[in-house]
Amino acid sequence: MIRSLYTRAVLTFLVSVIAGTLIAFFVAVWVFEEKLNENLQINLLHFGQDVAQIYEIIPQREADSYVSGMKQLDSYHIRIYDEMGQFQPFGMLNGHKPTTVTMEQIKKVRDGEVVQVNMNGVAPSLLGLPLKTEAGMKAMFVEPIAPPSASFAIKWIIAFLIYSLIAGSLMILVAAMFLVRPIKKLTKATRQIAAGDFNVKLNIQQTGELGTLARSFEEMIHDLQQLEQMRREFVSNVSHEVQSPLTSISGYAIALKQVDLGDHERSRYLDIIIAEAERMSKMSDSLLKLSLLESQSQQMRLVTRSLDEEIRRVIVAIQPQWSARNIRFDLNLKAVMLTADHDQLNQVWINILGNSIKFSHDSGKISVSIKQDMNSVTVRISDTGIGISLEDQKRIFERFFKADRSHSRKYDGSGMGLAIVKQIVLLHQGDIRVESEPGRGTTFIVTLPITTPTVS
Predict the structure, then answer these.
(1) CA within 13 Å, CB half, 294
(2) What is the number of alpha carbons within 13 Å of residue 312 lying toward its C-beta?
(3) What is the pLDDT of residues 141-180, one digit of tens each?
(4) What is the pLDDT of residue 100?
(5) CA distance 99 to 142
């Protein structure tokens, strides 16, 4: 089995050209065989008729002398047979082996027939003509000892085709090298990527299918680099997020082993261990939830409900969070019926409103509005909190990312909430974006279709 594309391309070309040339040649010969036969025998026939006419006009002795001095004998050989099968030759054979003449052929010619013998396929090799002389009817056989012009032309054409095939093969060998070179580069790049090296430069400038493939491959390399960077960051973030509560749990568990530890301190250490364990449990649940959303393995339960009523219920449910900080709500909720998985959407509103409350100043204000058009509904949730820098806005929907790291201890959280929000919105074939300025608050804008298509 030939595995090399280069070898297969060259062999395919050679086989195709050779087979096509041979088939075309034999078909052409088969189609034009009769005409070729006529064209190739015409000179031989004319020469034989001229010689026969000489013997009819002048005496045999003079005719023999005249014929023996003809220049055409450089190309033809003549044999004149009598009734006994004896022959008189004219012309030099020059190493040419004469064609055998049978008594039957001699008899036919002496009886007035014209006999043609084709020993080499198309070109006639022997022509028998009746010859009328003073001594009676004889049989003259004319044989070409040099190739006829048409036969020579055919041989020249065959030679030309062979040389053309050789030259074309050399050219296709060179062309195939340029054709296969980009594929070899892609193969080498694939091996590098498989080995974990994404620093690959193809430098393929070709257009057409190979150029398109190369550019698509470079885009894939870029995407793989981003995925690898995200994977490394994910592992680093998980390690960091897990290590912190594990360190606290381990430290306080060791402290509980102290014999002289008071009941108050023991209770406080246990509360910290329980809190850190709950934190790890929530992070694990969030990771599982995000994984299910990204793989779309979680079935959506689509129902049609009032979106404004659902948002009001969420605000009421989290009242302890905003009432303790004296935060007020400004609601502009128009009645909208939305077909969606409202259990999942409630997590969107809880996460966004929770962040708005968390990052708002005491006695701040949160505005929630709904706007509907023909095909979609837009929910805007704005706060007057600390805001998000432009650099952080590009990454806030990444898992484990926490904006404003300097406040990470003040504002608790795993950095998973907005990543889950993003996946839920995408699962509903919607869109979410953020508008914010540091110190001037943040606005989350969620756009959802009125009727969510079923995810296959």
Answers:
(1) 10
(2) 11
(3) 988 876 555 555 666 677 767 776 777 677 777 766 766 7
(4) 84
(5) 10
Cα gap 189→199, rounded to integer Å? 9
For the stretch 313-327, pLDDT in tens is 988 888 888 888 899
How far is residue 132 from each of residues 107, 258, 287, 424, 427, measured CA to CA in Å? 14, 145, 115, 112, 107
Any long-range contacts for 309-316 (C-beta under 8 Å, 24+ apart)?
A: 310/342, 310/345, 310/346, 310/349, 311/349, 311/368, 311/370, 311/379, 314/346, 314/349, 314/350, 314/353, 315/353, 315/368
Yes or no: say if 128 and 111 are a contact pair by the CB < 8 Å rule.
no
Q: Which of 336, 406, 351 is nearest to 381 (CA)?
A: 351
What is the distance, to the nearest Å, from the Cα of residue 353 to the centroid of all Cα atoms in its chain? 47
Helix runs in 256-326, H state only = 263-295, 307-317, 319-323
Structure tokens at 171: 């050219």
pTM score, two decimals? 0.47
Task: Give the number of residues written for the chain.
Answer: 456
Q: Are 134 and 58 in contact (CB under 8 A)?
A: no
pLDDT score at 40: 60
- Could you tell me the CA-to-CA distances from 20 to 13, 24, 27, 350 in Å, in that order? 10, 6, 10, 74
Domains along the chain?
Answer: 32-146 (3.30.450.20), 209-293 (1.10.287.130), 299-449 (3.30.565.10)
pLDDT tens-digit readout, 343-392: 888 888 988 998 888 888 888 899 999 998 888 999 999 998 888 888 88
Q: Which residues of the chain have pLDDT under 50?
A: 405-409, 411, 456
| Interatomic CA distance for residues 204 and 200, integer angstroms | 12
What pLDDT does 409 receive? 44
